[in-house]
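seq:
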Amino acid sequence: MNFKQPISVLVLVHTPDLQVLLLERTDFNDAWQSVTGSREGSEALLDTARREVGEETGIARDVGILRDWAYSSDFEIYEIWRHRYAPGVTVNTEHVFSLEVPGPLAVTLSPREHRQYRWLPWQQAAELVFSPSNAEAIRMLPQRMGN
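struct:
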């Protein structure tokens, strides 16, 4: 079995006025989140971020400005997903990126991963996401974008 790496990206897709795209997971009821995903092989984290945005939203690689925040945090992997990792792996390191798009875009979801999406002002998005590290990153967005 190929286990997931405990190294992932979190990509905040947002507009210039800080509306944030959220995706609802299919495998965890009422679980809203930003784009996330694990690194594959030895790919650069920037490439992981680009790949995950494309896979989860269909947003083209050349749309918007992708920024590496050079910021990461560790979190305990939820029990529901631990089987995807090697035995004994319980902590994931998540690297934060943001993708600024011109405005709220229609996205093409991966139906096996997400059931719906919505664009929300950053304050509401931070309250809705289930992951504390996702909420923390969204709350950092205004400062990171100079607002």
